[in-house]
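**User:** My hope is that you can spare some time for a protein that puzzles me. As I understand it, each token names a local backbone shape. I would be glad if you read both lines and explained how they fit together. The protein I mean follows directly.
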Amino acid sequence: MKISFLFFSIENLFSFTVNAFVTPCRILQLHSSRSFAMTRQTATVDTLSVRIKKVMDQLPKAEKKLGQMILQSPGQMASYSASEIARMAGVSNATMTRLVQRLGYDSFEQMRRLAREGIAWGSPLFLLDRSSEPQEVIDQDPFEAHIKASITNIRTSFESISPIVIEEIGSQLAGARQIRIFGQRNNYFFAAYLRWQLIQFRSDVYLLPASGETLGEYLVGLMPADLFIVFGLRRRQPGLAGLVSTVRQSGAKVVLITDTASEQDIQADWTIKCETSSPIPLDNHTAVMTVCHVLSEKLIRLVGLQGRERLARIEDLHMQLKEF
């Protein structure tokens, strides 16, 4: 789960962008200063842990003890004062002051801001709270906290989703010439799941990118009659805003499925925000899967008999090929 985007050089960033999208010149024109906000944030957040690790061997005993505690759960810096963290580590306030200065920060508040960025970014390490061990949840009830989070996330998400938006997206799912679904990291699995539901009832639904492939080949030939679905939940890879901008220039419609904590820097035709709160340091994605089910239901209803006939032919082929 732990990924480092530290010290991204301009050369490396160009290399990633060229491999991921069309051409460097094209992408530089499309990206606004906010397009790489998540990249800058990631590097800044990781720097907090990296700075501590770099000086760990040279730290005096008390500062090393404090540094080790921060590394174990850096996210708690967002919730506690400097004095409280020093007390939790069993060191003096002066030790905290010296460590802040040794790491090159102007103040403890600067370090606290970095911790808050790490929480917003979705790093499991920053979401982990040392003050509440998982065993405490297990002792209360092994399932209740997760069930409650799932129900709350689904309800909260759909309270903010307009039925009109779902109907409009459903019409696009049924009527689009082609549907292309994009996702990276965890988002790839959501994209694959939604595609598998949709292809039961309509053709020309594509998942991208395939392993080892670049995106330029998929973007050529996009038309206004196409639908492009993007899963952009945290933690996104940089450049996603540029991809969406490129797709929209083709005239294709874009649906963005994201979470409530992510940067709102992507301009899509429709945006669905899912709540992903969780009792553990890993996001709860039950609302995302429910959105996939709702969209699939809309497609099934709209394609009607044509979709049923397609599903019947698929089942006949399963039997003929003895796939089950």
The CA atoms of residues 86 and 92 lie 6 Å apart. The chain has 15 helices and five strands.
